[in-house]
Amino acid sequence: MSADTSMKPLNIAVLTVSDTRTLETDTSGQYLVDTLQDDGHRLAKRQLCVDDKYQMRAIVSDWIADPAIQVILVTGGTGFTDRDSTPEALAVLFDKTVDGFGELFRAISYQEIGTSTVQSRAIAGIANHTGIFCLPGSTGACKTAWQGILHSQLDSRHRPCNFVDHFSSGDGA
């Protein structure tokens, strides 16, 4: 029996957390949309939200409950300003935390921006068989996360392991 070598596209939702961006000026969210589609995945939903932990929780909770959404990418709100609240808003929704995601993101990012990477509170978790990845709001950080981690971990062909089998089937079943 041979291993399945075909790509299993995922249904991915993108949430941008920002008090200032619009769909027209959201280069980070647009990068994620373009890249996930270029990699063969499907955009399930896209939304912008002000940096308010209750609004973020409401949106992400709805997406977690939607059996057609397998992955949620959140960009923004992971810094240390008074308004940055993405980790506090979303970590409470996780059934399991992907501890290595933030650690690996900062290790890769260190090669690009040096010690400034410690100011990133990138986190990830799984809730209701939905992957949730919280990235910094800069387009460069989104590129780092996608190219350095997500591109391979969201690809069913990546070996020795990837996240795809941990997520819901995406067909509502």
From TrEMBL:
Transmembrane segments: none annotated. Keywords: Molybdenum cofactor biosynthesis. The keyword Plastid does not apply. It comes from the Bacteria. CDD domains: MogA_MoaB (cd00886). Gene3D superfamilies: MoaB/Mog-like domain. SUPFAM superfamilies: Molybdenum cofactor biosynthesis proteins (SSF53218). Residues 13-157 form the MoaB/Mog domain. InterPro entries: MoaB, MoaB/Mog-like_dom_sf, MoaB/Mog_dom, MoaB_proteobac. Pathway: Cofactor biosynthesis; molybdopterin biosynthesis. The keyword Calcium does not apply. NCBIfam families: moaB_proteo (TIGR02667), molyb_syn (TIGR00177). May be involved in the biosynthesis of molybdopterin. This is Molybdenum cofactor biosynthesis protein B. It comes from Fluctibacter halophilus.
